[in-house]
């Protein structure tokens, strides 16, 4: 299928995160919600997107990586909790701040929430993060080089590591696949862990953004010594064993409050 101009506009609108809500697309494109739904039906038939209740996501072009779902699935999973975390974390970042954002799905939500800030200097290895913040409110975005991974559009490898080690930033905002009482913060991918450690070395403080589902999960690769993490931003209090681990490492836990309803 050669997408129509409106289909291309919809694809452009959801390209950064892989998902979109019908009311948001309607406002952005200046057409009715029924027009969006009609176009989405055709796009789904053409294999471009998958319709969801009240929204849409890009059709996966690759399967799941070992141990971890695709970026699109992870972005949509527990989206309300991730948005709460993102909004709270954005409130911790001042205009003009310098920060690193990694490839995590929660971090992509943080990038969206940070669009309210101005004059940020952002270093990232995530294409969705870069797309969310570049050319917006005077931000400067520096994207690590190297081959982009198919399943999450993240750049890794020696070139990306060398690039990011040139910077010194105020905040490193990182994701975790699991938060474990006996191992702290963990990931599924060795290259992600290596990259995150390099970023922690380049930042004044490291912040983990992780929703409460991570408290019940496990992952094989330790991200770093928990004592190197300043703050965990989450949406619910951690279980007692994890809370003790965090307290021993002097990690501050911030619970993101529920979002206000729009117009409220």
From TrEMBL:
Xref: InterPro entries: ArsR-like_HTH, Carb_Metab_HTH_regulators, DeoR-like_C, DeoR_HTH, NagB/RpiA_transferase-like, WH-like_DNA-bd_sf, WH_DNA-bd_sf
An example Gene Ontology molecular-function term: DNA-binding transcription factor activity
One Pfam family linked to the record: HTH_DeoR
Residue ranges occupied by any HTH deoR-type domain in the UniProt entry: 3-58
SMART domains from the UniProt entry: DeoRC, HTH_DEOR
Keyword match Amino-acid biosynthesis: no
Membrane spanning residue stretches: none
Keyword Cytoplasm among record annotations: no
Alphabetical UniProt keywords: Repressor, Transcription, Transcription regulation
Protein name in UniProt: DeoR/GlpR transcriptional regulator
Organism of origin: Rhabdonatronobacter sediminivivens
Lineage, uppermost ranks: Bacteria, Pseudomonadati, Pseudomonadota, Alphaproteobacteria, Rhodobacterales
């Amino acid at each position: 299928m050669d997408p129509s101009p409106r289909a291309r506009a919809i694809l452009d609108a959801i390209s950064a995160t892989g998902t979109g809500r019908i009311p948001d697309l309607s406002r952005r494109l200046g057409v009715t919600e029924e027009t969006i739904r009609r176009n989405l039906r055709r796009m789904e038939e053409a294999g471009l997107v998958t319709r969801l209740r009240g929204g849409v996501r890009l059709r996966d072009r690759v399967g799941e990586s070992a141990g971890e779902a695709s970026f699109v699935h992870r972005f949509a999973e527990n989206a309300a909790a991730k948005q709460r975390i993102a909004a709270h974390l954005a409130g911790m970042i001042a205009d003009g701040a310098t920060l690193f954002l990694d490839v995590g799905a929660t971090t992509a939500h943080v990038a969206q929430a940070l669009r309210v800030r101005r004059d940020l200097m952002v270093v990232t290895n995530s294409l969705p993060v870069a797309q969310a913040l570049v050319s917006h409110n005077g931000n400067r975005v520096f994207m690590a080089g190297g081959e982009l991974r198919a399943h999450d559009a993240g750049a890794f490898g020696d070139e990306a590591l060398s690039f990011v080690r040139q910077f010194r930033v105020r905040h490193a905002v990182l994701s975790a696949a699991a938060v474990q009482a006996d191992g702290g913060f963990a990931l599924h991918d060795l290259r992600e862990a290596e990259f995150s450690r390099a970023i922690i070395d380049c930042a004044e403080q490291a912040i983990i953004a992780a929703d409460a589902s991570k408290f019940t999960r496990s992952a094989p690769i330790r991200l770093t010594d928990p004592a190197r993490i300043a703050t965990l931003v989450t949406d619910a209090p951690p279980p007692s064993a994890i809370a003790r681990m965090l307290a021993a490492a002097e990690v501050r836990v911030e619970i993101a409050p529920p979002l206000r309803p729009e117009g409220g």
